[in-house]
UniProtKB/TrEMBL annotation:
It comes from Rubrobacter taiwanensis. SUPFAM superfamilies: OsmC-like. InterPro entries: KH_dom-like_a/b (IPR015946), OsmC/Ohr_fam (IPR003718), OsmC/Ohrsf (IPR036102). This is OsmC family peroxiredoxin. It comes from the Bacteria.
Length: 143
């Protein structure tokens, strides 16, 4: 069942705590740590939120930097999450670290691209930001 405007993702149990996820035909292995009955044969589901935030903002930032004609040859976004002590143990603090590589990259362009992504364009950060304190920093490496 698919309704207009709805997006779909699904999981099917493989064995133990290992599930096979599917998003539009792309397979994602999900599993729990051994201490929680899994084998560690896939990503922990909650950590996919961090990955989603990293991918979402990375696509925004690279797009904005390209529009600003910055000579970027590489971009890495690392997302660090700290979880609350009480259940449901949501992320209560998230830090994004942007590592930009390129020639003569303007720090002001990087700052503005990050600001636009985090405050206007990236829905993943907007969602995470409803439960977590979000902070970010960036590094520029000359290529």
């Amino acid at each position: 069942m698919k309704s207009e405007g709805w997006e779909r993702a699904s999981v099917v149990l493989d064995e133990g705590m290992h599930f096979i996820g599917d998003i539009d035909g792309f397979r994602i292995d999900l599993d729990a740590r051994e201490s929680f009955g899994g084998r560690g044969a896939g990503a922990e589901p909650l950590r996919l939120l961090l990955l989603g935030a990293a991918g979402c903002t990375a696509m925004d930032v690279i797009s904005i930097l390209r529009k600003k004609r910055q000579e970027v040859s590489g971009l890495e976004v690392e997302v660090l999450g700290s979880r609350a002590k009480e259940h449901p143990r949501v992320y209560d603090r998230v830090e994004l670290v942007y590592r930009v590589r390129g020639r003569d990259v303007d720090p002001r362009a990087v700052e503005r691209a990050i600001e636009l992504s985090e405050t206007r364009y990236c829905p993943a950060i907007a969602m995470v930001g409803r439960t977590a304190e979000v902070s970010s920093r960036y590094e520029i490496e000359e290529a």
